[in-house]
Design brief:
The structure is a homodimer. By secondary structure, chain A is an alpha/beta fold. Helices cover 42% and strands 19% of the residues of chain A. The first copy, chain A, has an 8-stranded parallel sheet. The first copy, chain A, has a 5-stranded mixed sheet with strand order 11-12-13-14-15, with helices on both faces. In chain A, strands 1-2 form a two-stranded antiparallel ribbon. Chain A starts with 12 loop residues before the first strand and ends with a helix. Chains A and B meet through strand 4, helix 8, helix 9, helix 10 and strand 11 of A and strand 4, helix 8, helix 9, helix 10 and strand 11 of B.
Amino acid sequence: MDEVGCRRKTRRIHLGSVPIGDGAPVVVQSMTNTETRDVEKTVNQIRRLARIGCEVVRVAVKDKEAAHVLSRIREKISLPLVADIHFDYRLALMAIEQGVEGIRINPGNMSGSRIREVVRAAQERGTVIRVGVNAGSLEKSIWVRYGGPCARALVESALSHVKRIEDMGWTQLKISVKSSHVPTMIEAYRMLADATDCPLHLGVTEAGTLLNATVKSAVGMGILLHEGIGDTIRVSITGDPTQEIPVAFGILRTLGLRLVGPEIVACPTCGRCEIDVAGLARKVEKRLLDFKTHLKIAIMGCVVNGPGEAKEADIGIAGGKGRGLLFKRGKVIGKLKEEEMLERLIREVYAMEKEREEKK
Amino acid sequence: MDEVGCRRKTRRIHLGSVPIGDGAPVVVQSMTNTETRDVEKTVNQIRRLARIGCEVVRVAVKDKEAAHVLSRIREKISLPLVADIHFDYRLALMAIEQGVEGIRINPGNMSGSRIREVVRAAQERGTVIRVGVNAGSLEKSIWVRYGGPCARALVESALSHVKRIEDMGWTQLKISVKSSHVPTMIEAYRMLADATDCPLHLGVTEAGTLLNATVKSAVGMGILLHEGIGDTIRVSITGDPTQEIPVAFGILRTLGLRLVGPEIVACPTCGRCEIDVAGLARKVEKRLLDFKTHLKIAIMGCVVNGPGEAKEADIGIAGGKGRGLLFKRGKVIGKLKEEEMLERLIREVYAMEKEREEKK
């Protein structure tokens, strides 16, 4: 798993065995949407998330029943577990006692005096704290002062809580300042990046269903990540959280920050197209859903850009009339009929993965 | 249709009645994937594109048969028509004669001497020319000199052709420098933005199927648009081009550049969620597919961020146990059972659109 690009310098924190910040690869996380107290369902969802590459997982802890099962969930999973706490500091204390690697507290709904006890417990157990401000639940006093959840308001809320925690001597912290309004979120994270060396957890909140959430997250996080800002990310999508992982890795891969999984370069198919590019591309994607090695696979329909793109890819097909040339690392290695393309491509892709692993 | 934000200063061009550059709203375009010579299919696809907001459409002209039907297509559609030409300058001449509003030529596959005749014809008819460089079909001499399609190579190819056309006295030009590698595309457009006042047509080429193409386009174009770069955009998606339009408007809406269509703010649903947010959000989206007015609609599952987001939206629901509060412009206007939510929301949304239109 490569990591490229110039990143903002931050302090390093550890969520269990997962390093965050200070040059570590940008970490991909998600959150379950099961009832947390339903241990079996929650564990199953976490395992599905882990299988497709999720690296940290958060669960909502809305009551004592949920808090009580955290250690049982933890025993059964391989990912660091973060407990999401709102309103009740006692749930935070219980979560820490249960051994979770991190807790997320929201300054907007937990009073400062109660946080003191939580910080002391976290420090004793080495629990990471995320100070997670959210535009939708900004502290009332700040909301009133700024007239709404603008970037400056979000940042003030986050920094004042971080300062309080740091003053108590605990520095294993990360910060998020999420908004559903992307320009606000961009501005807020830029301000944070200037003001603190805490690792930053990026997210666009309440982003909506798959396609809209993908657009908003890719724009908002893409802009920040390209500036070197962001140490861990969560793409929020309404619905099954496993949808979030490919989008997250897609954003990171697009910017060259994490080269994980296949990158399928396929033409949009115009009136020149002579093979079924869309069908072939979708089939290849489906067959490679669990494939973790980064390979650039080109599937191109005609002679205009086909040979050029196919040559630049690790492996590629440039289609002609019902046929196509197969390129591997810039060289033609075969001429295929359309019906042969899928199986041959998949075979070559797995062979290339094997070659790479042998080289290591 | 609002237009906001600080944009790079460019010259103004006109694709028929559609202004591009110099403060005009960022124009959304697409390209058909029918056989162009099949007039009926092509016109039907263009009409479907127009209905959902596409503002300029391009068709591939790969042979004389395609070139010959362009005026027949043009008569039947309301959008400016751009002919995509490769290899054969005579097809460009034919397309111009047929009255298309624009042609796209690719310096990588049309020799400079032949372009002279094309430019003269374009100037006589007032046809806009896009100089469309593509990494997959970069001029051989430049490819060799730079060792590949790097940003500098793409820009050199584009600018040398633009200069030749401008030296002949024709300035109704726009430029694209597309690559399937997003960091290259970002760098190339930034260099172009510094070097010319031509309007820029943004695109990530060969971006792949829906979700991957959305990620790559949103990251690449999002970064550039947020810097004020880009006057017209095309999201390339393998498959049906009508998929491209909501993604394009989604990117522009996210950055506040074009406020078109509903923006649905919905929570990712966690263990706290007490109504079926995902189902409701998807149903609302589906019902509002053709809805052009910009409204922020919040659909939230619990009391943590729900009331805050719902209050900030034009209209919103903050769910509780099988029930929810309905907010309109920050005020609670009703308490709904879950089964009432969809119809009531849709009714309110159309009522708000009507109110807005009456105010105009």
